[in-house]
Design goal:
two-stranded antiparallel ribbon, single chain, 10 strands, 7 helices, about 25% helix, alpha+beta
Amino acid sequence: MTLPGGQRPVAPQYLTLRDRIAEGIETGKMAPGARLPSERQLQTDSGAARGTIREALFQLEAEGLIYRRDRSGWYVSPPPITYDPTRWAGFMSYVAEQGRSPATVTLSKDEVPAAPAVADIFRVAPGTRLYVISRRRSIDARPVLVERIIVDPKLAPGLFEHSLEGSLTQVLTERYKLSVARNRVSMRPCALVKNAADQLGVKTGTPGLEVVRTSFDAAGRVVEYDWEYWRHDAIRIHVDLNVG
């Protein structure tokens, strides 16, 4: 667009700064995991106001190019992991397949009465006891998601006797001979609520991705119901389907 008199519009100052930092990331001058200069240093170097600096950083964060470590500063985001929701492949497997290092920490495990909405998903009576597992998962030592998994004890009795620090998919497959024939997956962008944000070491309201997956076996039974909150910059959704 050209203004009257042949002049071109001047880009807002925060976008100019955003472009300069993004170029450094895209050209490899700033490697994944590298710490950005402090906001004060960026202010000194650019002469921009503190609010302008933050606008540029928030824009880069929304694009997934940088992320914040609470009380530590801003860092260049690592490459996202590719996730195919059509596969019943465990986190540990598909992360390792992509040459990255996965890890899991079990935050809690309990047997609780099913609320009506959950009971409807599992086709059981409200109040039926179900296993609930909460875990935090990391890639290359960086926490990227927290999840809440629900499993019917009738399909996997004694599940808590097995280690849940690795692949739950592997446990269900090898120990209980369960297999998945169909996945129903819903995803939506979200702002990470306090509990999820605290577990991931980020500020409340940080951009995230909510993934809800219901996995069914060939008989239509729910093998697991998984509710995940991801850092939005840590995941890239990839689906390859034949279409009619």
